[in-house]
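#dry-run=false #mode=assembly
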Amino acid sequence: MNDIKNIYCVGRNFVKHAEELGNDIPSRPLLFSKPTRSIVQANGGTIELPFDRGEVHYEAEIVLFIGQDVPKSFAVEDVVEKMALGIDFTLREEQQRLKEKGHPWLRAKGFKNSAAITDFWSFPGMNSCKETDFTLHINGEEIQRGNIQNMLFDFKRIIEECNDLFGLGPGDILFTGTPEGVGKVNAHDEFLLRWGEEGKGRFTIA
Ligand code: ZN
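#status=ok
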């Protein structure tokens, strides 16, 4: 995780998730960023969250690791070296207050441990991603299920947009958006992230 440089995230990238929060469907990727100190490994440990600042929600997402400078024209397989699953933890009530004022989301999305990430594995290619659902299980129950085919903006579009606006290079990672089913985290919840049938990361909330 020490080689991670920048963290970019896409909001409202699954139509049903945008709808469940009563948000408009964006016409271009809605981008935000997290500080690298928000990273915590989702690898069997315990994760502390700032429950004293309001409701924390989970958002299970695919995380892409960019392995090289991104040229103008590229194939996703050429620039994405690795992938992982992650949770974009969000202080939902704080985010709502910030949205109403038109303020940046940093306080709601960038706190310590707000970017939980499993170990990365080699990017398996677009076809494999289309064939494989990712799921979040909390306390043994499946809570979220997503597939990249239901994304509003696909990996290519997200990478292009971030590259055009910010420039992407080795060590930059992208949280690519969450499917419907987000909700409140409780103390002692047991989280499990799965790629297909394969468990990729588990952890417990303090
Ligand atoms: Zn998210």
